């Protein structure tokens, strides 16, 4: 697997950068792990959980840098989603970029199969 993705509130990510660690969003903290999506899942995740939000970032992560704390577990309809049972190390983040809304109200994603260059790497 090339990359996994985390959709994060811009302000929360700024707090994490200032603190030097990302422990997760409130839903992650409540569930006990950080939720991620694969390239095939991330657009549905945005539509289902972040509809209409324009204050978001798309964080790209190299799963090979996460070690044994990353597992794939069944979620929506039995699909396997990546879950990280540890803080996200910034060394695993390969790109961070805005996730804007398009004119149709859906989020506009970059091509997820190509190298990304964003506003703030880690």
Automatic annotation (TrEMBL):
One Pfam family hit: DUF952
SUPFAM superfamilies: ADP-ribosylation
InterPro entries in UniProt: DUF952 (IPR009297)
Protein origin, superkingdom: Bacteria
PANTHER family: BLR1139 PROTEIN (PTHR34129), DUF952 DOMAIN-CONTAINING PROTEIN (PTHR34129:SF1)
Protein name, as recorded: Dihydroorotate dehydrogenase
Organism per entry: Methylobrevis pamukkalensis
């Amino acid at each position: 697997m090339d990359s996994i993705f985390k959709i994060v509130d811009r302000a929360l990510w700024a707090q994490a950068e200032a603190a030097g660690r990302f422990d997760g969003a409130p839903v992650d903290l409540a569930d006990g792990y950080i939720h991620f999506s694969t390239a095939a899942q991330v657009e549905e995740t945005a539509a289902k959980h972040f509809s209409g939000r324009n204050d978001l970032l798309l964080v790209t992560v190299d799963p090979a840098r996460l070690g044994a704390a990353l597992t794939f577990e069944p979620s929506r309809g039995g699909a396997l989603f990546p879950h990280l049972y540890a803080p996200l190390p910034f060394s695993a983040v390969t790109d961070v970029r805005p996730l804007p809304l398009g004119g149709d109200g859906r989020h506009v994603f970059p091509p997820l199969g190509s190298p990304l260059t964003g506003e703030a790497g880690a």
